[in-house]
Amino acid sequence: MTDDRTIHFVSLGCAKNRVDTEIMLGVSGVEGFRHVDDPSDAEVIVINTCGFIGPAKEESVDTILEMAELKEAGRCERLVVAGCLSQRYPDELATEMPEVDHFLGSSDMLKLGAVLRREAKERMLVGNPAEYTMRATDPRQLTQRGHSAYVKIAEGCNRSCSFCAIPSFRGKQRSRPIADVVAEAERLAAQGVVEVNLISQDTIAYGRDLEGRPTLADLAAALAEVEGLRWVRLHYLYPEKLTDPLIELLAQHPKVLSYVDMPLQHAASPMLKRMRRGHGGKRLRDVVTRLRTAIPDLVFRTSFIVGHPGETEADFAELEDFVRWAEFDHVGVFLYSLEEGTRSGEMGDEAVDEKVAEARHRKLMRLQRPISRERLKARIGTELDVLVDGISDESEFLLEGRWWGQAPEVDGKVYLANGAAQPGEVRRALVTDAADYDLVADLLTPEGEWDAPPGAKKPRRRKVKLRTV
After folding, report:
1. Domains of the chain by range and CATH?
2. Cβ pair 202, 240 in contact under 8 A
3. What average pLDDT does this structure show over 163-180?
4. ∠ Cα 341 65 93 (to 5°)
5. Listed residue (271, 408, 393) closest to 344, CA to CA
6. pLDDT of 198-241, one tens digit each?
7. Residue 460: its pLDDT value, please?
């Protein structure tokens, strides 16, 4: 082993996977390894895989094979595959991929330490069932820009949606105690984090498995008291009846953002029944109406699945009508992926033609795009709080960030055409332009004036051409 021990990570899949990768990054740091961006420079390569749906599994397999080539051509001595794909298909991977030195599952991040110390004698280190729940004391190295972090508040899921295999390999709901989540948030805030994004498989169910049954509202209120945090954002709410305390926090608390991320999956009652969502289309309309009424300036993100077995033209038309009616701010649309071991996977006689499903995907995205654009255009001329990320990827002459209605990595950006700020600052900005998903704004001083160094003359406004999709 060389004195300069190097490691490279590839993190695939969702934000929850990203937290797992950050924990493994922390473990590698404790063990004295230096992270390198170029995998060809790494002694150890770790791939944290996704095993959720077909395309994600294919990407994971392709990435493993690509990285395995570096054991022949590069510096790589050990290849480690972790995460959901290992958890879901341990025996198959062990047989088909002899190039891999160790497999870790979705509950085995801390076992990486033994691998790096060369103390792990077994090749297959996948715990079954998945039972790990992270703790505030676990090592973690952040990878996000702009002083933002995901905070995983629970593992697993107790739902039985017919299209989803996650509970079969991520296990049952395992919530973290409020005190432990707050302890992690305090540590993150001490590192300069100002935004925490709460994630789990089923965030609305937080605490139901804990003694005393604390609620998501209890947790959000406690996190909002952490000194240094400015924004608390909630992701992945299930569309069930929301409690008054939670709605009150979303509507009134200055740190709990009026932002709801609630994957609805469909809107037609027959489809929701096939998906085993536990409700019909009326509840979804009631939930949207209640949130819009109770929370001024609500920003609503959701996602839908098209092409699920049994989806008729009438079902899809009802989904289109629902999207027109609801006027969501952000919408993600996913093609159904047949997954073995799920109830939907057994509905072969009701399969939707692939080309039909793809056409529905395109049609729903075309329907939503002008809705998103018009909602952003309504912000032109208004002032918003923007979390500055730093220099823009588009131009070194621009700063970029996100206003509170944009979650990291999924909702677009704010390009700051004029003014100066440091990454991590939450600044007031005047919106000057909008496109399908992005905004342009000028930073303001606390007095509401254009921000410039003392004595500087206000330049001509920099023109920023926003791309449309």
Report:
1. 6-116 (3.40.50.12160), 148-377 (3.80.30.20), 379-469 (2.40.50.140)
2. no
3. 92
4. 35
5. 271
6. 999 999 999 999 999 999 999 999 999 999 999 999 999 999 87
7. 41
